[in-house]
Design brief:
Blueprint: H1 2-21, H2 23-30, H3 51-67, E1 72-77, E2 80-85, H4 88-97, E3 100-101, H5 106-112, H6 121-131, H7 137-141, H8 144-158, E4 167-168, H9 170-186, H10 199-216, H11 223-226, H12 230-256, H13 269-275, H14 282-313, H15 315-329, H16 338-342, H17 345-357, E5 364-367, E6 372-373, E7 378-379, E8 384-387, H18 389-392, H19 396-399, H20 413-416, H21 437-454, E9 455-459, E10 465-468, E11 470-473, E12 478-483
Parallel strand pairs: 2-8
Antiparallel strand pairs: 1-2, 3-5, 4-12, 5-8, 6-7, 9-12, 10-11
Bound molecules: protoporphyrin IX containing FE.
């Protein structure tokens, strides 16, 4: 009994000491409006539950904060203070000046090391500058051939679903995107579309699901607690397996590397990195290549799948897209070229509107490195800044009373002139935005053009969503296919 009392006294004393050391932060947070917090817990209870409940809670909490008309609000998750803003001027300032990622990205860092996505700011500055020329439009356009080739395989595979009941198209699309990112980033023809269940792909999925679980389970976040669970061992084994795979590809590439051989033709990203003799170690190469294959795959596959869901629901829009494709291709089944893709204006608007309504990267977390002056307050250094594109994209203040409806013509040039640059940020904004956005747009247009020339899509209304790092529909991307004549 005495021992228990002693432990309680020590715990209370430690808690008081901890609170005392952060008095300045608490005092400061009190000056911000807040909503839905509890004593001691703060907002932690909003982030407990399954992925659907967490999505609904985040939506409710953020909508309430946004509706209150407060430009800046505080959110406490456990002991961490976050500042949320829905004022596009503040969002612009945060994304332009706070380039350091939030603490929550550290769970990805165990896997992706100092790859571009999670790299600490000093290293990121150097590496982003070195990588930018490799993501130049001219180089990315060389990959259009791969997009067309893999898109054709996808169309062939989808044939098995024609006339059948609804099925989850995401599984097909993500395999196609994996083939694309593996071939373009490391020159590896994996043929995931025909072999979707390899040990490497299983290891990737396992790591993703453990990281996602950790993100939303507060008690698994401290390393000391996580390392006591079996998840830590499983995560380590699977991370090691994915690292081994990429390390081997890099070793083989270096062994075969002969500058003379690489003079002509299309080059994958790894070749380009080697050829330029950039000062990357083998580990850094692996971290960058892994980051690219992870950041570029599910995001793009999800957007394509959401486009198919929305077009299945909005047949008039689908017919408009089909008409545009007919005008570009006639009856030809040829692979889309750069010129073809440039002409897909309506499809472009459909994709943009889809990314507005279903923002696959729903939340972005940054950290202030020094004091940051926003519209209504000055945020001290070391505070997490949360930008929530999925809420900004449906804000009635920014998009009008029909913000929730699907209308690709919002993105007509004449309807976009007065829009704030941070009202629409599916690829984030500022210098730490998505380096693969041109790659993603070209791949999405090419693949959608291939599918929609061959098949007519139908789908049913879907409204249940969940957050598993990215935004997924709870029941999958269920569509049915009919062959076009
Ligand atoms: C529809 C497709 C895509 C969407 C919606 C998307 C979205 C985003 C967003 C929002 C970020 C910033 C995340 C943050 O700050 O937390 C980001 C970063 C990044 N994306 Fe994408 N992305 C897409 C496709 C791609 C593709 C195809 C690639 C590579 C081929 C790629 C590679 C990256 C990388 C490497 C970063 C980190 C950039 C940095 O920190 O400098 N993404 N992406």
């Amino acid at each position: 009994m005495l021992v228990v009392i002693l432990i309680c006294i020590i715990a209370v004393a430690l808690y008081i000491k901890f609170r005392y050391s952060r008095v300045a932060l608490y005092k400061f947070a009190e000056t911000w409006p807040t909503y839905g917090d509890l004593p001691i817990l703060g907002h932690t209870h909003w982030f407990i539950g399954g992925p659907e409940r967490i999505f609904n809670n985040i939506r409710t909490l953020m909508d309430a904060i946004n509706a209150e008309g407060k430009t800046v609000s505080s959110v406490w998750i456990g002991p961490s203070l976050y500042m949320v803003s829905f004022n596009p001027d503040d969002v612009q300032k945060i994304l332009e000046t706070c380039l350091e990622k939030d603490y929550s990205y550290k769970f990805l860092q165990t896997w992706l090391g100092n790859g571009l996505f999670v790299a600490p700011i000093d290293l990121w500055k150097v590496h982003r500058r070195l990588m930018l020329p490799i993501f130049h439009n001219r180089i990315i356009e060389d990959y259009i051939e791969v997009f067309g080739e893999q898109g054709n395989v996808l169309v062939e595979r989808l044939q098995e679903q024609v006339g059948k009941p609804s099925f989850d198209v995401y599984e097909y699309i993500t395999s196609c995107m994996l083939d694309i990112v593996f071939e373009t980033s490391m020159g590896k023809k994996m043929d995931v579309q025909h072999n979707p269940d390899t040990p490497y792909l299983r290891a990737r999925k396992t790591v993703m699901s453990i990281i996602n679980m950790r993100l939303f389970k507060a008690w698994l976040q401290p390393d000391v607690l996580f390392n006591l669970t079996s998840h830590a061992t499983v995560q380590k084994e699977n991370i090691d397996a994915t690292h081994k795979f990429t390390d081997e590809v890099i070793r083989d590439k270096i062994a075969d590397f002969d500058e003379e051989n690489y003079k002509e033709g299309r080059k994958d990203i790894l070749q380009l990195l080697l050829e330029r003799k950039l000062a990357f170690s083998n580990i850094e190469l692996r971290e960058h290549i892994d980051s690219i294959t992870i950041a570029g795959n599910d995001t793009t596959a999800l957007v394509i799948s959401y486009v198919l869901l929305l077009l299945g629901e909005h047949q008039d829009v689908q017919e408009e897209v089909y008409k545009e494709l007919k005008m570009i291709f006639g009856d030809s089944q040829r692979r889309p070229t750069k010129e073809d893709i440039t002409k897909m204006d309506y499809l472009d608007r459909v994709i943009r509107e889809t990314m507005r309504l279903y923002t696959v990267v729903p939340i972005i977390g940054r950290k202030t490195q020094k004091e940051l002056k926003l519209s209504t307050c000055t945020v001290p250094a070391g505070v997490g800044c949360v930008v929530v594109p999925m809420v900004l994209h449906r804000s009635k203040k920014l998009w009008g009373p029909d913000a929730d409806s699907f209308n690709p013509d919002r993105f007509l040039p004449e309807n976009s002139t007065d829009r704030h640059p941070c009202a629409y940020i599916p690829f984030s904004y500022g210098t730490r935005n998505c380096i693969g956005r041109y790659f993603g747009m070209l791949a999405m247009k090419s693949i959608l053009a291939n599918i929609l020339r061959s098949y007519k899509v139908t789908s049913q209304a879907f409204d249940r969503l969940k957050i598993e790092i990215l935004l997924f529909p709870v029941n999958g991307h269920q569509i049915t296919l009919e062959k076009r004549l």
